[in-house]
Amino acid sequence: MAEPILKVDGLKKHYPICKGMFNKQVATRYVVDGVDIEVFPGETVALVGESGCGKTVLLRVLLGIEDPTEGEVYYYGKNLKEMSKQERREIRRKVQMIFQDAASALHPRFSILESLSEPLILGGMTDKAEIEKRVCETLEKVGMEPSYRFRNPDSLSGGQRQRILIARALVERPELILADEPISALDVSLQAQVLNLLMDLQEEYKLSMLFVAHDLAVVRQIATYILIMYAGHILESAPASEIYSNAMHPYTQVLLESAPSISKGVRNEDFNLNLKVGDAPDPANPPSGCVFHTRCVYADERCCCEVPQPVEVSPHHIVRCHKAKTAAEFAKELKKQDAEA
């Protein structure tokens, strides 16, 4: 089996909460709390979870913008902590990020040519003609005319700015792309265009991707493997086909049933989504036992006290839930109701 391009082992990122005159630590925010990820060559791994669950912080740690509290990050089998400055610089060329907010990710006073040239110049390219040629080629790859290189970001639409961000990630010809909700700010038609573009580029350049999203419907056509994240933990992970046909965790069922679908129609007010009314837990005060038990309709005393261990229910399908069987039975009942409707 091929070696993973990216491997994350037991990654944690905690932030101290300090107060008082002497800035004394009084608590800790457990934003990312024990995450394992593997991304293999040519594979798209989707990291799905609601806002505030720690997805963006995880990406910042993977990029080396922030240091992990615990755990290891490996690129091509080498620990990120043990890399020299030169090795880290080389990794940054091979690993690029597509940011969520295109408006703030592009310098407002830089032309598109300047924005796309900057990573090439930092990477050591000095020939201006060669740089401009690479920029033009990359713009064409993302479906934009080379003449757009003379424009500024404020003269572009939201979809065009998002394509520029994709072009900036591709301009150094990376092997792995970390995409932080790259289509969340776009309307539905543009979302489809950008997803199709990413899939085409992935096939052409043999890219691997870690694709962050909060909607399981969005990643259905692009993901090969899906991780379900909640309150800094991975609750379920499985091949994409297995998630959509045999999801075991109640939270995964919540995400699946809340995704928009024409076939579901409009559910009545009594419809139960495995979800109690309330907010996600505070990272500074996480619940004991299963982190999802405060919102799960199946939670019992065991769920409140005992942390569920990962169980492999089928090949490469791992779930952390004491009530996985109950959730699976509930999913079958939902499918039966949809078929009858």
Task: Tell me the layout of helices and strands.
Elements: E1 6-19, E2 24-39, E3 44-48, H1 55-62, E4 70-75, E5 78-79, H2 85-94, E6 95-98, H3 102-105, H4 112-122, H5 128-141, H6 158-170, E7 176-180, H7 188-205, E8 208-213, H8 216-219, E9 225-230, E10 233-239, H9 240-246, H10 250-258, H11 301-305, E11 311-314, E12 317-319, H12 324-340
Parallel strand pairs: 3-8, 3-9, 6-7, 7-8
Antiparallel strand pairs: 1-2, 1-4, 4-5, 9-10, 10-12, 11-12
Helix pairs in contact: 5-6, 6-7
Question: In brief, what are we looking at here?
Answer:
The protein is an alpha/beta fold.
- Count up the helices: 12
Give the CATH superfamily of the largest domain.
P-loop containing nucleotide triphosphate hydrolases
CATH class of the largest domain: Alpha Beta
CATH topology of the largest domain: Rossmann fold
Q: Which sheet architecture does the biggest sheet show?
A: 8 strands, mixed
How do the strands line up in the largest sheet? Answer: 6-7-8-3-9-10-12-11
Q: What structural class results from the helix and strand content?
A: alpha/beta
Number of domains: 2
The amount of beta strand, in percent, is 15-25%
Q: Mean of the pLDDT scores?
A: 87
Form type: globular
